[in-house]
Amino acid sequence: MWISGYREDSMDQIFNDLIHECKYVAPGAQLTYSLRNRLEKYKKVRTEIVSRTKDGCAPLFIACKRGNVEIVDYLITVCGANVEQRGKYEVPDERSVHCVTPLWCAAVSGKLPVMKCLISHGAEINAVSDSGSTPVRSACFMTHLDIVSYLVEHGADILKANYNGGTCLINSVQSVELCTYLLQHGADVNATDIQNKTALHYAIQEHRLETTKLLLEHNANPHLKSRYNDDALQTACLKGAIHIFEYLVDTVAYSPEKLADANELMGSTFLDEHNDTHTALRYWRRAMAIRIANSVDGAPLPKRPVLPKCEAYRNAREFATLEELNAVALDLDAIRIQSLLICERVLGPHHKDTLFHLMFRGATYADALRYQNCIDLWRRALEIRVEKDSILYTDTCFAAQVLLRLMVDLNEKTLEVVDRNQDTQEPKFRDVVAIFKLLSGQLTEARELLEKRPVHKRQKDCYERILKCVTHLIYLLVETARSEDEKDLMHQLVRDLVKKNPRSVYTGDTLLHLCVSSLNTVNSNYFNPADDIHTIFPRLDVAKLLLECGAYVDAKNILRSTPLHIASRGCNFDNHLVKLLLDYGAHLDTPNRAGDTPARLLSCNPLNTVNLVSYISLQCHAAQAIYKYGIRGTDLPVTLHHFLELHKE
């Protein structure tokens, strides 16, 4: 046993020394003689020693990454190291870690001699990483032309894409020389990834003019559209790639309408991305020249489709003549609205860049303290998000949170404003109503979807946040309703929502539970730091509204806690709120899953001034006695069973 333990310690020491030398030995050097001698004494188990890993990597993997071909050859030939044993390759720029073979590691690290050694010992040339990427594809990304050519000569498959559909050619757009080599060896110039993008799309995105020319010369199709409906010309416009745009216009046959739309979109890109009004107007005038040159019945070529008037865009129409454009050019605000109109018409409302432009322009208005303009645009973006993706989508949730946080902070006067004495009410009741209808109308359907399997945590979290947004909208309804008509509408909206009885996913809280809890917050650190969260709840007037609209005062969540349990806790406590719940019939003696009753929680609270005795009825005492003494309640009327259930521990 002593010999066995000693041997184990020796093997551990050898392995640690081997890892150390593989990491720190000079480039081109061998392992030290003493270490090789010690390794070779363990003829039967040295393969086991070199197969151990530290931090996810075996000695062979480390040697391949550092390019020590002598050590690599020794570990394989003398020690029997497995050439396919995977290790962890960290990509610092991407903050990601991949599980890959030694050959993949050597290819990405640019270690050609090591790669040759591995291939000569039978390494699988097309072995993929955990993301499905082959060594040759990853070498293309690193622009290692010598390694790519050697791999191709030895049978590497340049047509094999990764799990996202990314090909060798797509990974090579940064190098004309590498793209030329791949195309000469049979690369598919029009192969698409899961976003339906080709190498041409990526070349344009990265402003690679020479690569774009090469791909088009090899019959790349400039009319292929990505999943966002972007072809080559539209991609150039969205990325502001002027030289590629001009080249495409000169070499590809486009219709006058397509060219006019493209020039208008290019102008919008320069306005919104670079704040370059002069260049934007130049492209828009160029577009108008194209429309005028191709007039129909004496009128400029019409813009299609025709967008309906939208309040978010101040009911503006897109300029249709040169005179209208010249008039708009004198008003920076009008120019910005025109840019948004162009994006929505040319790209469509659901395009990611349309939504980005809406959020971006809204943010610039907020930074300029023009909050109503911001609300108008963010509300439009939220409407599109809900229509396109539903409230269970992360971006929809973000848009809702940032909009609600702005409106709440504006109402609470925590934001800097131009004039605090202005008569205009912000936020406006009609905005609150519209957003309330938009979000609350989706709650029932979304909750039903969360009952289907599988359920993703991200979708659950989105639902929880949207439900909290809805409670904050109820607060804003209370705050902004002024006239009797507005108050009647508020009651009707809240009454309809209460009937649907939406509950949180994780804890089963009702709207009333949420509105008496200080944990009910809408987090968005756009306007305020993350640790500077202004809490709205618990809120007496909101709780009163919910109770008036039919909210069940003794509703229980998953922990069998009622709203009164929540309101009785120290962090949520307010005498007026507790009294309100009790006045609406909340039971003081209802135990939750932990056995706590509101009466017990309140009696321990030194701040409580509510007289609890007057709220405990003889019925409650009788129900407690039935459970305490184990009396069977089967002989009681059915109408009392629910009352008894409230007192059950």
Quickly list its features:
Serine Threonine Protein Phosphatase 5, Tetratricopeptide repeat, mainly alpha, 2 strands
Task: Give an account of the 3D structure.
This protein has 649 residues and is mainly α. The chain has a domain at 9-157: Ankyrin repeat-containing domain (Serine Threonine Protein Phosphatase 5, Tetratricopeptide repeat). The protein has 31 helices and 2 strands. Strands 1-2 form a two-stranded antiparallel sheet. Strand 1 and strand 2 form a beta hairpin. Helix 21 (394-411) runs parallel beside helix 23.
Q: Which structural category fits the helices and strands?
A: mainly alpha
How can the largest sheet be summarized?
A: 2 strands, antiparallel
Rg, Å, rounded: 34 Å
CATH architecture of the domain at 9-157: Alpha Horseshoe
Helix content: 55-70%
* Text of the CATH class of the domain at 9-157: Mainly Alpha
Strand runs, count: 2
Q: If helices are DSSP runs of H or I spanning 4 or more residues, what is the number of helices?
A: 31
Pfam families: Ank, Ank_2
Organism: Dinoponera quadriceps (South American ant)
Pathway: Protein modification; protein ubiquitination
ANK repeats: 98-130, 131-163, 195-227, 559-593
Task: Give a brief description.
Belongs to the fem-1 family. With 649 residues, this protein is mainly α. It contains 31 helices and 2 strands.
